[in-house]
Amino acid sequence: MFAPNQPIFLAAAVTALVVFPGCSLVPGIKAGSELPRVELRDAALVQFRGANSSSPDMPGECDCNNPAHWEGDTFYVFNSAGHPWRSSGPDLFHLQTNYLRCEYDNRVSGGRWIECTWKLEDGALYGWYHFEPAGICPGAHPDSPKMNLTAPRIGAVKSTDNGATWHDLGVVLETPPDTLKCDTKNYYFAGGNGDFSVMLDPKKEFLYFLFSNYPNVLSEQGFGVARMRWANRDQPVGNVWKWREGHWGEPGLGGHVSPIFPAKTDWHRVDADAFWGPSIHWNTHLRRYVILLNRARDGHFTQEGIYASFNRDLNNPSGWSPPQKIPVAQDKLAWYPQVVGLNSSQHETDKLAGRVARLFIRGQSRWELLFLKPGEDSFDSAITRER
Questions:
Q1: Which pLDDT score, from 0 to 100, does residue 96 have?
Q2: Phi-psi region of 120 (alpha: psi -120 to 50; beta: other; left: phi over 0)
Q3: With bands split at pLDDT 50, 70 and 90, how would you rate the model's confidence at 224?
Q4: Mind listing the domains of the chain with CATH numbers?
Q5: pTM score, two decimals?
Q6: Which residues lie across from 371 on neighbouring strands?
Q7: What is the pLDDT of residue 319?
Q8: What's the pLDDT at 79?
Q9: Which of 294, 221, 226 shows the shortest CA–CA distance to 264?
Q10: pLDDT score recorded for residue 138
Q11: CA separation for the pair 148, 101 (Å, rounded)
Q12: Is residue 182 classed as helix, strand or coil in its secondary structure?
């Protein structure tokens, strides 16, 4: 363990980067260029209210990425565990007002986790959910673990009341139906697309999806990338296209992908070894996109570690840098790492952060992440924190 506020340093040079062992990187990804660095240090605990919380002193679960947005001087955060709940307040550290269960305008057979949001100036709030349909592997004995298997899909929603209620726009990403594996050794998934985040490009031309890919084909396992013209946000079904072999030519519904950081060991084996759950933000200090990744070391998704990767251009999926391990103590490791920015005046969120940001893991933050440009000196603790 390390002392409070004592920086723990990642690789100081590219040659020391912790790169996913045994991973064949997507063609075009270079390990030899200079990359940003990240420092981690302890900070006072901040905890989201979570889903299904009975009171502020009894927080609920945060079972996915926790998206956030601003409406004027109010900061909103969504936490999900099969269903989304919303908290709000004047900033990240004071989310004690207007805690409520969000509602959809339709019913489905399975849970929907709100993983991503994007707010427009006209008041419309768009969201995207991870959907786990029931009955994916029919015919299994009622006592069989296979009865609990699912294959996630990704869908879109829209709200005009800051996410209190959502209009379901439909499913936009799913794997081909012939890639399910009901005899899988995976504890949760027989296939599917899920565990994801999104980012709108600076020109507001395309919305990019970075999603986990769980088909029965090892060569496609890893995380995939897809995009949709932002102009199609109200009619997204059939307008999302997956990236494969250098082109955006595969349909979001049933298409194949070329994975970023392909799985080392098949997701459907007991000893699975793969990255999943990318959480993306634009870092104003680095002038780059940053993703945080989980790495599973078995079919139960036991967490091996948390990693960071960098890219300048969303339209270049091959541009993501080799994953760099963030040294979180083993006893604090959990799923769903994400960044939340601290600068309220700049309306920073889970999608926008600066040199200093909070690291959340499954809804809890005990750390600050400090982002450094290539060649930049380590963060000086005397510098005023960006809050």
A1: 83
A2: beta
A3: very high
A4: 8-372 (2.115.10.20)
A5: 0.90
A6: 38
A7: 97
A8: 98
A9: 221
A10: 79
A11: 25
A12: coil
The answer to whether 248 touches 232, Cβ cutoff 8 Å, is no
Distance CA 351, CA 43 (A): 21
- Find the angle CA(271)-CA(335)-CA(47) to the nearest 5 degrees: 160
Count helices and strands (H / E) in the chain: 0, 24
As beta bridge partners, residue 38 has: 371
Residue written as tokens 């139960």? 300
User: What is the chain's length?
Assistant: 387
Q: How far apart are the first and last CA of the chain?
A: 26
Q: Six-digit token pair at 177? A: 């139906």
- Among the ranges given (23-27, 69-73, 251-255, 272-276), the one the predictor scored with the smallest mean pLDDT: 23-27
Residue 27 is encoded by which pair of tokens? 């063609």
The rounded distance, in Å, linking the Cα atoms of 313 and 185 is 36
Q: Look at the block and give the residue holding tokens 């790492």.
A: 337
Give the H or E element holding residue 158.
strand 153-159
- Alpha carbon separation from 274 to 20, 95, 149, 304, 332 (Å, rounded): 9, 34, 19, 10, 20
b/e map of 68-82 (b: 16 or more CB within 10 Å)? bbbeeeebbbbbbbe
pLDDT at 34: 85
Instruction: Evaluate the CA torsion angle 368, 303, 260, 251 in order and state its sign.
Output: negative
Q: How far is CA 273 from CA 17, 34, 222, 267, 318, in A?
A: 19, 27, 10, 7, 21
